[in-house]
Amino acid sequence: MSSILRTEDLRVEYRSRDLKQTVNLALKGLNLNVSAGEVFGFLGPNGAGKTTTMNVLLGYVKPTEGTAHLFDVDVREPIARQRIGYLPELTYYYKFLTVEELLRFYASLFEIPKLEAESRIDRLLKLVELEHARRQPIRTYSKGMQQRAGLAQALINNPDLLLLDEPTSGLDPLGRMKVREIIRRLKEEGKTVFFSSHELGEVETICDRVAILHQGELKVEGRVDDLMARYHCNLEQVFLKVVEYQPQP
Amino acid sequence: MNKILAIAGVVIKELYRRKDFYVLFVLTALITLLLGSVNFFHDDRIARYLKEICLLLIWISALVIAITTTARQIPAERENRTIFPLLAKPVTRAQVITGKFLGCWLAVAVALAVFYLFFGVISGSREHAWPVLKYFQALWLQWTMLAVVIALVLFGSVIFTSPAENVTICFFAVLGILLLGGHLNTVALGQKEPARTMLYTLYFLIPHLEWFDVRDIIIYDWPRIPWLDCLLATLYAAVYVVVFLFAAWLVFRRKVLAT
Ligand SMILES: Nc1ncnc2c1ncn2[C@@H]1O[C@H](COP(=O)(O)OP(=O)(O)O)[C@@H](O)[C@H]1O
Ligand SMILES: [Mg+2]
Prior knowledge:
Largest interface: A-B, 38 and 27 residues
Number of strands of chain A: 10
CATH topology of chain A: Rossmann fold
Shape of chain B: globular
Number of domains of chain B: 1
CATH architecture of chain A: 3-Layer(aba) Sandwich
Radius of gyration of chain B: 20 Å
Shape of chain A: globular
Structural class of chain B: mainly alpha
Oligomer: heterodimer
Distance between the termini of chain A: 47 Å
Radius of gyration of chain A: 19 Å
Number of helices of chain A: 8
Order of helices and strands of chain B: HHHHHHHHHHH
CATH class of chain A: Alpha Beta
Bound molecules: adenosine-5'-diphosphate, magnesium ion
């Protein structure tokens, strides 16, 4: 199977801006390999380095060492982002645009032909249930609506790989359900989904494979059922073992 | 190119949906109109004086619009985090810089066109003379000058962390050049070394924005500028635009944008 997402010995240091130049080691030699058609859960407690990994994959942050590839293209090349969709952990979109203008703008960045773009916009707005608000400026949207607009923009180029950074955090149960449904549907269409989360229940039900990251290091990686068999417990307990959680006596 | 135009389009959309842009616009238009309606003086000197004030207003308003809107662009993208979904698309940071530049420059063109239209109609209706080509030259040169200013401010916006700081510094730099830039060489003559060499170097390095100020051909009804000079001035401005945009890209390219 071809590799869709690959990192090799990825190391990221954040340097503080002040004179002390303290170094914060966010990733310590991360190796990941995600193949086509997989739903890959990227787990870890807060501060583990999940968002940092996404930042490297999207070219926002240059790795201190190591390389990252999407579709065998180095992430430093903008063309690596042609076939991906990305939903940031939290983001606000241009508030003065309406959602359809926003999607049209992003479609033009992918150089999608006008007619094709319009039909995709119709379809996506139906999917995320924003049809009724398509001509309202995003400024007037509720938080949930903004999230859904975010999901629509991540799908505008009909991506083969989706990078979702904690897509369900901050959503109500209904919103979560919807996101999970969409992930499942994308999987059925043969898409690859790479998403970070610390919602272990949902990870267990929709992921083929997971990796658990802790303090910038990959601790465990494997198929969900294999891991459960290996550790003789459910994913949550595996997670707690990996992050060396000590229950209070 | 389509991507750059799309980014420029968003800049323009934002501008015409913002209220504060109109405030300045309406204000200048109003003052121009008021001045134009002062018809009691059939004195040539006063008429010329009024023209001078109108053109000065146009210059200041255009500068304020250009500097404030440009300075906001990239900091606002970062502050509102819209830069992240934008850069997650297959666009380069160079395209973002160029798109922002183009958006601001085109927006300023609209503002200038409206200003000059106002001015032309008012003074034309008073004097029954329509030196359209002269207005076009003045507008064109002012617009090319503003391209340099916009590129400079864009460069400033990736260096300075606060837009207010950037606006202040750029505004004084531009005013300084407009008022003193042309006299720097004469000042240099009266200085001792090393101040002399330094001033001379500065004189040759700065973009001479004051060369683009041809308001006098309208105010004093001087003859048109040779078209070749216009072309040379445009090329001169283009060089500075490229240099500033390239510098902005060099800095922006390396910026760590952690979510
Ligand atoms: N912009 C930044 N500057 C400095 N340190 C950062 C920055 N972003 C993240 N970090 C640090 O890197 C580590 C990993 O953070 P992050 O990737 O956001 O974790 P996660 O997304 O898994 O919660 C943390 O220790 C965090 O403090
Ligand atoms: Mg995170």
